[in-house]
Recover the amino acids of this structure.
């Protein structure tokens, strides 16, 4: 009985080594087999790390695209393949978190002046004026961008929730948020330059 288990583990190791070698050689069918076997592991990791189903699905997809593109970096072995996939997943999760942080920083910069940049002699009217400019800039955005920016920053909804609410693809929602922030920032900076 013990020999049967050992043979089974040996066969598994041999299979993993074989599929890894085929991936490195550029066989698309190997990528399909790897996806079928390890996509659930990668997705579970991404979901736990990101806490958002849509972001986890997108990260999982990006992991396997990256695995295909960087297959030449894999040294085929039974242990290396799943570890290599999780290493790529860690990088993709970090990318998503960095994008979220950039978006939040842009909103904070567009919505109000940081405390450190405010001069003591600056009247409170300037901060109020900035908020009014930001609100007007949001109102001037074309729909659906205006609605998406409002849902993201006034109602604090996630990109996935906005996509579900509006019926738009997740990538489209993210693009609208980024472009809306750029437009708001440009309008705010234009007003600040004009009033100096």
């Amino acid at each position: 009985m013990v020999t049967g288990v050992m043979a089974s583990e040996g066969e598994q190791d041999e299979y993993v080594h074989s599929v890894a070698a085929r991936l490195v050689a550029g066989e698309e069918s190997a990528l399909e087999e790897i996806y079928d076997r390890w996509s659930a592991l990668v997705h579970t990791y991404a979901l736990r790390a990101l806490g958002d189903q849509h972001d986890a699905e997108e990260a999982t997809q990006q992991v396997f695209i990256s695995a295909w593109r960087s297959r030449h970096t894999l040294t085929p072995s039974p242990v290396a393949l799943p570890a290599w996939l999780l290493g790529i997943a860690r990088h993709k999760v970090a990318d998503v978190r960095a994008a979220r942080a950039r978006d939040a920083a842009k909103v904070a910069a567009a919505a109000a002046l940081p405390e450190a940049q405010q001069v003591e002699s600056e009247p409170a009217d300037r901060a109020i004026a900035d908020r009014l400019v930001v609100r007007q800039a949001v109102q001037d955005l074309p729909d659906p961008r205006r609605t998406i920016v409002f849902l993201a920053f006034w109602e604090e909804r996630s990109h996935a929730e906005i996509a579900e609410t509006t019926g738009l693809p997740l990538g489209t929602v993210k693009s609208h948020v980024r472009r809306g922030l750029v437009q708001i920032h440009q309008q705010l900076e234009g007003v600040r330059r004009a009033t100096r």
Q: What stands out?
A: The CA atoms of residues 52 and 132 lie 32 Å apart. The helical segments are 2-24, 28-50, 53-69, 80-111, 124-140, 145-153, 159-166, 170-194. DSSP finds eight helices and no strands in the chain.
